Amino acid sequence: MAADGSSIAWDVLGDSSRRQIVAALAARPRAVGELADGLPISRPAVSQHLRVLKDAGVVVDEAAGTRRVYRVDAVALSALKDQLDTFWRRTLAGFSEAAQTSLESSRHRAKGEGMSEVSSATVLRSV
């Protein structure tokens, strides 16, 4: 899935009904009727959501007699997972950097305050 395809996939997964459909298809391939039976939306609505998911490259379908059976496109989901992994690594790296900066800043302030206390004590003794 290309970068543009991944962007479209993220957009279409923004809908909770589509996420429910993808979750059901992740368990196993299903026909429209079977999906509709397990969801709180109508069969025509499921068909419409499947069309959107298919156009975005998130699901694929194949003929099985007179019905179409849908399944998740493993390559597409793998591309989305790779993007999430990248986001997560960047987030953790940013957090680590912020924590390190905060720690160094705290150490620097503590050193500075320690010097001030010593300097104040020295001044008080000299008076």
Protein model, in words:
The chain has 127 residues and is mainly α. 74% of the residues lie in helices and 11% in strands. A three-stranded antiparallel β-sheet has the order 1-3-2. The C terminus is likely disordered.
Short description:
By secondary structure, the chain is mainly alpha-helical. It has helices at residues 3-12, 16-27, 32-37, 43-55, 74-126; strands at 30-31, 59-64, 67-72.
- Quick one: overall form? elongated
Report mean pLDDT, rounded to a whole number: 85
Spatial order of strands in the largest sheet: 1-3-2
Tally of helical runs = 5
Taking pLDDT < 50 over at least 5 consecutive residues as the criterion, the unreliable ranges are 117-127
Radius of gyration: 28 Å
How much strand? Answer: 5-15%
Provide key terms for this protein.
3-stranded antiparallel β-sheet, about 130 residues, mainly alpha, about 10% strand, single chain, 3 strands, disordered C terminus
Give the topology, please.
Blueprint: H1 3-12, H2 16-27, E1 30-31, H3 32-37, H4 43-55, E2 59-64, E3 67-72, H5 74-126
Antiparallel strand pairs: 1-3, 2-3
